């Protein structure tokens, strides 16, 4: 027993209990080594000669009692001391050792029971030693000050800087500071497994001499524990051997006891280094271990990781160490070689789709399967199920690891694990968000995908546990992130953009709304200080945008420089350093009580900063009036959920899209295999050479499909399974509810980060495109309701003035445009409240000049497609014989017009005359611009094609030319839609601007007809070139759109309307009757054969015939029919290939002869 500093009076020691009945504890130690250690700890009397050491009797724990009695007898101990109590060495009356057991300047009483320290860190021992049993000591402290009283070993040495508790061989208790000491200090009250102390009682479990022996062993062993090669080769294998017996991790407490010994007998820095090397060794072993069918290696390493993390102190250090590296534990790598992974044994039978529709899509109708196909498919599904069950074992262990990291009940040794993990997790997100342009420092996306699924599972389990304990809170099914997190400064969003723009700008413009709605007041001095960094940018960009009253600006305006300012990070971090105050609204007549809230950096936050305390809402500071006063869950889970949404936006969605390529490869090889089998069936028996080559191709395709189908089974189990789909669906619903709650706050909605809207749109896209056809989105619970909620968000916010970011506004418009292309999602748009539908249509009909109008115009076209003249096609008729690049594109979906939304459009245009006039004038202006640009570009293309020298046409120019043509057609369709739904806008001249609109319309229609229908005109020549990139440029789409308008105003109107329209059309200076005749095909009887090839509605073949055989296809692209023959060599190809080739080269594809001319080719009828 020892004490340090101050004044203390020791009293007699009392025996409380005896451990005579306890079993002896021995370790597996070399007998000679154990004897040497015990002889060293309890040396024999110095009277024996040096030679006696070599002949002394071997000493064990069983002989230790007799050895000690012999030593006491040799020292001529008094008769009273020989009769002392078992487990104690020394006199029965305990006094202070004033002869040799002290350090520093001390005054000791005459009775050796009292001591006063007169120097810094004075220390003194007592004259007793205990080694077994339970003992209690009593000390009377007669002065104030810092004092440490405890126990030490014989080897413990004190000095002026270190006293009892400051060395590894001593323990002490400080009643003044209520802390215990053993080199480091912790709060009093922790129960040690090897040494437990409570109210001054020390209980030594087992034989204390073992502990003393282990202390000496670890004294030499600890430095070796920091060597990476020893940790990986010896320690890790030893720990793995403990778990080899199987069973749960809880059935192997030896690992916990070993870790207890590490922290007890080694220096903290040594334990930290040892654990660090052990964890790195486990990471390497897990990451690079081979994939075997039962995933045994991965399971083994994860079990050991779980066992280590069950140790509280070790877990907290490892979480602090590095979360980024630990993400490796949650990854299940995809095997590149199927045979090495044993998948051919686990899935012996493979299967792939063999039936496809006209567009090349897989037909999932199992009714037409043959018996053999059905057996193969079922056997393949059973193999996939076996693989999934084995993968689920690994995933369950990964979730257990995360649950240990998210434990918030282990507060005995300081901050709980969850809050350490949360701060490190936030730092991990910051590093990945800030270094997106530097992939070398990012967490790989494939790791992120697995990590997010395990994290969602762990969050939901803790969330539901909290729900069971607190029935008033919401369940994980209704989870969302409260809007307070976006503006109260408790969560740092780094450089990520807010919906309303720059954060410092939002704080200045919305400070009154923050005070009124959220009871948050911002210190003006802090606002001024935080905005100094952006002063230069504000001067350059002029007046700042106000999100509460801003209008969506068009694409012609430059994006404000502050949206990509290099100081964006500093400005966004302003809220983390600004002083915010909380107003108490209970006393409206008195001045509001202000409570200063200090927000720490991410790595410095504590549990109180996150969860809050009395009078402090923590992360939920500043609840708006619109937010329900209902407990949600533990606030730390809310921030982790916010991080999960951010993580999906950073890289998870992109990775989900990349992994679909395996499914696409299976589809392509299956189509190729089926095509090869059909060719084998048609191959003439006399052509054995062709048959042999086809059979080789068939074998190659089949082997590739066997490999890919097994690999696809692994990917479906790890990435696209039903459970993973439910995780993404849950994340979608979280984002939808979060957006709805934030939207209810009014202008404070501008504080929401953009990634919530991005995740809502992208997760829906992933569910629809990536998880099918293995899993169907329609089977998800609450699918229809979720679809409607997302439709309401898109309809409301695509033109929301509170959103100022150009990129996010474009994304919202593109998402809405894609939404109206599919029947199910379009029906969801029709199910939203009528008020929201009318508001959406009003935004779509806003004038086109001051906003990006192409997307909104395309939305209107999709609402009309299927109702216009000649507008019921999925693909353009002249492109039907070519294979689409992606049959899943929204533009290639079957027409699904919305009569309900058309009716809303008609109501708005008929009731609001000013809006109708401004909208149609803007459409006519954009049509004039788009068609003029198109004509100018095709003139340049034609001039380049006619030059004899080699000419290069930029592919971007071809793409822009095709875009201008598509815009012209879509604008004509919107005009057709408008004049069909509300003809009085043009024909009722009592309305203002009606006559002017009709004259402008007639002028543009005549210009289009004259340009497109003139004989041997520029348009004809460019169309006949069939250049790649200009496939959509053809007579049909633009002329049928013009015809639809003419039919509506000249045929389907009333008598007065027809006369007015005809008079305006005929009186236009650009009108040419020949264009109408050419369009209708009249007067073709006397035309030459070349002239008859011009387009007309009379001769138009909407569904051109397909090539009858492969010999009729172009040998260059195998997509178009042969339509051109070269001079003088007579080789053939399609017009698209030869025209593109002649732009850069005049030599024949096949014989390299110089091509002097190209004629049209038509296959003879006799062939």
UniProtKB/TrEMBL annotation:
**SMART domains named in the record:** RING (SM00184)
* Residue ranges with Basic and acidic residues bias: 604-614
Domain of life of the native organism? Eukaryota
**Catalytic activity, as annotated:** S-ubiquitinyl-[E2 ubiquitin-conjugating enzyme]-L-cysteine + [acceptor protein]-L-lysine = [E2 ubiquitin-conjugating enzyme]-L-cysteine + N(6)-ubiquitinyl-[acceptor protein]-L-lysine
* Record's keyword terms, sorted: Metal-binding, Transferase, Ubl conjugation pathway, Zinc, Zinc-finger
Looking up SUPFAM superfamilies in the UniProt record yields: Concanavalin A-like lectins/glucanases (SSF49899), RING/U-box (SSF57850)
Zinc among keywords: yes
Q: State which Enzyme Commission number(s) the record gives.
A: 2.3.2.27
Which Gene Ontology terms of cellular component type are present?
Answer: cytoplasm
Where do the record's region annotations for Disordered lie?
Answer: 531-550, 604-627
Q: Which GO terms of type biological process are on file?
A: protein ubiquitination; proteolysis involved in protein catabolic process
Q: Which Pfam families match?
A: SPRY (PF00622), TPR_RNF123 (PF25576), zf-C3HC4_3 (PF13920)
User: What sequence ranges are listed for the domain RING-type?
Assistant: 1114-1152
**Molecular function per GO:** ubiquitin protein ligase activity; zinc ion binding
Q: PANTHER family, from UniProt?
A: E3 UBIQUITIN-PROTEIN LIGASE RNF123, RING FINGER AND SRY DOMAIN-CONTAINING
Q: What is this protein called?
A: RING-type E3 ubiquitin transferase
